[in-house]
Amino acid sequence: MLSFSRSSILSYLLWSLLFLTFASSNGVLATAKPKVVGFGYKLVSLVQLPNGGGLVGCLQVKQRTSTYGPDIPRLRLFVKHERRERVRVQITDADKQRWEVPYNLLPREPAPPLTGGKVTGAPFTAAEYPGEELVFTYGRDPFWFAVHRRSTRQTLFNTSAGALVFKDQYLEVSTALPKDAALYGLGENTQPGGIKLRPNDPYTIYTTDISAINLNTDLYGSHPVYMDLRSLGGRGVAHAVLLLNSNGMDVFYKGTSLTYKVIGGLLDFYFFSGPTPLAIVDQYTSMIGRPAPMPYWAFGFHQCRWGYKNLSVVEGVVEGYRNAQIPLDVIWNDDDHMDAAKDFTLDPVNYPRPKLLAFLDKIHAQGMKYIVLIDPGIAVNNSYGVYQRGMARDIFIKLDGQPYLAQVWPGPVYFPDFLNPNGVSWWIDEVRRFHDLVPVDGLWIDMNEASNFCTGKCTIPKTHQCPIPDSKTPWVCCLDCKNITNTRWDEPPYKINASGQTARLGFNTIATSATHYNGILEYNAHSLYGFSQAIATHKALQGLQGKRPFILTRSTFVGSGAYAAHWTGDNKGTWENLRYSISTMLNFGIFGMPMVGADICGFYPAAGSLEELCNRWIELGAFYPFSRDHANFASPRQELYVWESVAKSARNALGMRYKLLPYLYTLNYQAHLTGAPVARPLFFSFPDFTPCYGVSTQFLLGSSVMVSPVLEEGATSVSAMFPPGTWYNLFDTTKVVVSRGGGAPVRLDAPLNEINVHVYQNTVLPMQRGGVISKDARATPFTLVVAFPFGATEADAEGAVYVDDDERPEMALAEGQATFVRFHASVRGKAVTVRSDVMMGSFSLQKGLVIEKVSVLGLEGTGGKDLAIQVDGADADADAVATSSPYLAAGGGAKLQGEDGVEENSKRSVSVEVGGLALPLGKSFTMTWNMQIEA
Length: 935
Description:
The chain is an alpha+beta fold. It has 15 helices and 57 strands. The radius of gyration is 29 Å and the shape is globular. The chain starts with 8 loop residues before the first helix and ends with a strand. One of its GO terms (molecular function) is hydrolase activity, hydrolyzing O-glycosyl compounds. Belongs to the glycosyl hydrolase 31 family.
């Protein structure tokens, strides 16, 4: 939910005027004379620590300036090759400890303690400091540093073109870039130009409750990391750069340079060598935390609405989905279930506990789940137990020694401090108390940037009530407030482009001079609020019944993916927002948060009919990793069964999603192991194919399933980019696209109720029969779809599936609790082989999981013969492998389409189906046959 006042014209006019006031001081106006911000530093000493401890150097300022405050006279440089593929370069005050991301929130290798510039070690005089893959180089006067690849000497980062500036509240450093580098990341923001960063677009990083409908603006998350992909000699080579800093910053990307302007903390760079995009997310998440494992049901379809005013409405929604035979796994409540919008409460009239418990017993018996929202703001109410216990434990953020007063949905609120150990333990206890009241299956933490309907220092008014009874605009501030202008934290010397309009740092959030535990300033810790709340919530849920937690969070930071899923926030029911959702989703895969999706059909209402848009949005949203329909109370009802045409699209698209659940869940397992995103840009699988570097209207699920949605009103076809190779339409595998890799788009038919989803050659894709709830779908027999290149006579394919008891908190192979199976297929002339290798098969055997069919695509010939099947290395008994006699059947010719748009019927390639099987998933098998080839 969003503070609607952010969208008001008055607010934008006000802050536009403020922008003109602040712009001159920041050197923004073109007519302003550029100020000299700093003259840089010189390196006066550099030593090498023993036992691979890295380099430590001392920097002295060359000439002081007063712009944005005085320069810090002496800096400490620390460089270490922490792993073969990662080097860290940290620059901080040599004499005083500065703020940095707390190590208990984001565990990592510590830097050496400060020693006032006195460091013992061997003097380091070499021009380079090499690691196994990356090399650190530097200049002494002025000091600059660079990082390049050891193998190719390719420069990844080079600060020699600009002066290093380091002041208490202003840090600046720049790197040169080649003009052909493709950059991704630096978020969260809604990027109208697509996933590839555009020169001269603003990239401000500061967590803000400003709707996702605002373009090129700092939104809910802070992720100061970017991936750089370059084509060198026809080969795509990638690396990534993280500036681990939680303070607000502007990042200026000019095409041939990138400049950081940060308002506090220190410069703590991590460079990741790649060289592939997948290697980068592996290296990145190994440092920031692997993505949290999600329960199986979380990959089902979710339905929510802010405006389910009573339990009967929720019951009706569930019934509507069942009657329409549309899959549904999870039903959500926004704040409607609460008593007067107070956390951890139930509305006694509209959501009476006895009736809610009876409803949950019913849906839990069916396998459905229930999730509710909680906001961080705790209502200031002396009769409210949650508030009373919080006050007793002194766990709220403070200003001038008193709990900081803000306003959100319940009215006046205090914000818990999740940096305070007592605040964390209090929160864990409140979650436990609520779970005892209502056995929810997950928690949705919202408004945690933190959002505040007011700005500045506020008091409860004496002349009127707050909240205003029966207000139609509860997002309008009703506290008595005044701006705080007398601190350098609330009015720093450099103004980042906050809220896209150089707003005050404390605008509609916590005042930046407020303090957390141990005197930590909100100025420094602001962007960590949602991250710290997610960690506390994860701890709380993990301790309940020993189940795997599911948490959805709006505000995120580096490492949030290790604890929570994310949705892209308050979007709008427009075609533009449909398109924007893809880029944001793909960015979060790069950020290490693979469980992500947008509000299907849009959160805010838009003018005109939603029907066609909802058709296209559920077709796309059915393939978001996190798939949820959500709208606000002002929107028309948009559950998928409201329109028959949308219901038809939902049954089609979600029907395919539920067949693909084993594939999606296996991607979830791989993400947890290696950070590999569930939804990926095309260049992740095809980094050498430069035409796909900017593609933002299609995406991959895993390495080899491509989704090409319709994103334009009235369209009945879609222009899609196909990397080189053979692609089979999963809805109709006789529809085949063979791409020669020329980069020309292919025009695909896309009637209203259809979406194009293709599987790539060399893939073995595990699928099941599907269903209307994941509990039932996951118990159905498997089909293996084996995709060879079109007309293959010599090729290989592979795939895998992971199944487990998803109630376990851990997601790891363990005998009796999980099974992992690798599939391999090959064709050599006439001979075709499909086989499996099983790890820890007892879980699958216990669950009775079987493979009923193998469908092989792209073979040359007219049919198959001489079928033979072995299980566990021995010839299979027919009763052990088949529900009836196994059969081998050939399909007809394929409809071949290429980049020239010509279709033709081809009999060179056929599909071969081996059916009637009951092969145990938990036992290794080998299946062979020979193709019949016409002379």
